[in-house]
Amino acid sequence: MNIIERISSGKTLSVEEWIQAIDYNDPGYAEELKAAASVTRDRIYGRKVFARGLIEFTSYCRNDCYYCGLRRSNRDALRYRLSYDCIMDTADAGYMAGFRTFVLQGGEDSYFNDERLIMIVRGIKERYPDAAVTLSVGERSFESYKALKEAGADRYLLRHETADSIHYRKLHPDDMSQENRIRCLHDLKSLGYQTGAGMMVGSPGSSSRTLAEDMVFLSSLKPEMVGIGPFIPHSATPFRNEERGSVDLTLRMVALVRLALPHAMIPSTTALATASSDGQLQGILHGANVIMPDITPPAERGKYMIYDGKKITGDEAGENLRQIAESVGSIGYELSMERGDYIP
Ligand code: 5AD
Question: Is 68 in the pocket of ligand 1 (CB under 6 A)?
Fold first, then answer.
């Protein structure tokens, strides 16, 4: 049995075996992987790519991650918070445009305590009970996650960033802990959220071994969603002079995750689109099945800069749904505005 068949049959691979699957350098293998990932996604979700309306509602962050442009030490970052009314208006416009999932994403902003977040989740769910609400607001307590779930949140995105504990320490200052992050992911799962994990590819200190550890971690956590994008340096961070992650390697990781977790909802990320002009479509061709057009009000849109050059126009922009549908259509897929829940 070759390695692609072994992954597809649900066999548990060791770190060493994952390293082989990640490193194996052969053009035929790369094509085979891409084709197998595509077939797997088609088998479970068809040739649909699900659209999520992304609302980046606060650029304040209390954390100081070395890779991220929104880190608290970045004095030059443009900070904003959307008001409750503005978030509701954004959701209204998004709903009119056809979105049935709203992703509320933000830095870890203490202003948005449970009370305020609960108001926002309830506000959207009361208006639009048929829409899903996904939260992406970082590490919180079990009680907080529970209260937000009870308020109606359906899904939660929290990338694990890296499963390797030594690598984790290279990416984060001492006041953050990998243990807490993993605790959060387990809490979210146990509360019944559709839970998203994920990692950057090619972040400083990463290697095929750290990525292999990510694969082992993901295979055991079995998150319902997995976000993967290349690392892209931000000029106002300690990693300003580091190299960006490889697009090809990112695509390979997308395909491997698709094979290991056939049912996962996998976005073709903005970082992929930013790193390469056809990155987003390539993501889909490698097994991704979600795109997250940005519907943040244009006045704030350019301010959520987690890395340099983040795309905010073209196929990234919520206004351009028709264009997005066309480009997805051009490679034989259909842009779906359905809620698009995880199929167990
Ligand atoms: N390059 C690519 N991805 C990044 N993220 C943060 N900073 C960067 C960067 N410089 C990713 C992290 C985080 C998500 C919001 O964006 O994985 O979880």
Answer: yes
Q: What is the pLDDT of residues 218-253, one digit of tens each?
A: 999 999 999 999 999 999 999 999 999 999 999 999
Contact 135, 146 (CB under 8 A): no
Selection from 49, 45, 51, 48 nearest residue 321 by Cα: 51
Domain annotation covers residue 89: yes
Ligand 1 atom closest to 161 (CA): 17
Residues in the chain: 344
- Has residue 264 been placed in a domain? yes
Alpha carbon distance 269, 99 (integer Å): 18
200 lines ligand 1 (CB under 6 A): yes
Residue 316 lies in a domain: yes
- Is position 342 within any domain? no
CATH of the domain at 209: 3.20.20.70
Mean local confidence (pLDDT), 50-78: 98
The residue nearest atom 8 of ligand 1, judged by CA position, is: 68
Distance in Å, CA 101 to ligand 1 centroid: 21
Pocket probe mutation, ligand 1, options 160, 307, 308, max atoms within 8 Å of Cβ: 307
Q: H or E element: which one contains 225? A: strand 225-230
pLDDT per residue as tens digits for the range 303-343: 999 999 988 776 767 678 999 999 999 999 999 999 999 99
- Does the beta carbon of 304 lie inside 6 Å of ligand 1? no
Summarised one tens digit per residue, pLDDT across range 75-101 is 999 999 999 999 999 999 999 999 999
The CA 33 to ligand 1 mean position distance, Å, reads: 25
How many distinct structural domains can be found in the chain? 1
- Domain boundaries, position 69: 3-336
DSSP calls for 83-118: -HHHHHHHHHHHHHHT--EEEEEE---TTS-HHHHH
